[in-house]
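Feature request, filed as a ticket because there's no other form

It would be nice if the structure record came with a short human-readable summary line next to the tokens. Right now we just get the raw output. Example of a typical job, pasted below so the devs can see what we mean:
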Amino acid sequence: MATAETVSLGPAHEPKEESINAFKQIEVDLKRTLQHLRHDSAKHEREFFAAVENLSDKQLTNFSADDLKLVRVATSAYGIHLFGKTLLPEGDSEGGTYFMFRAFIPGEAENARLHCIHTQELEQEDGTKSFKAIFTENDPLEWFDT
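Raw output as currently delivered:
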């Protein structure tokens, strides 16, 4: 399995044609997975999607390839790992409202597959935890497994 230690993640840049095409291939799955993740996390930890709690499912998933703002790419022996940062156009957070995803394009295949939508669980110094699946423009796009 590719990890941040075994492959080199390229610099962040605006998406090029290949990344936009990969996004379009996984767009339906992205929308379905983002909705499912929000509904599932609402049962256990609402904080993941607190930044967009005012959005309906339709508003949450009202994004397209035009909203893919930043990508990073890594190549491994298995294929291409695409990390993307997508604007949620109906979000109203002052620092922008984004979600991040990871996709995989196998070696000889032309079709991308969604690997995951990024969720973050951080433990504070006092032992409390914070959770998020929605990020701002200033949050860096780095390697993630979940």
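Something like this underneath would help us a lot:
The longest strand covers residues 68-76.
The helical segments are 17-44, 57-60.
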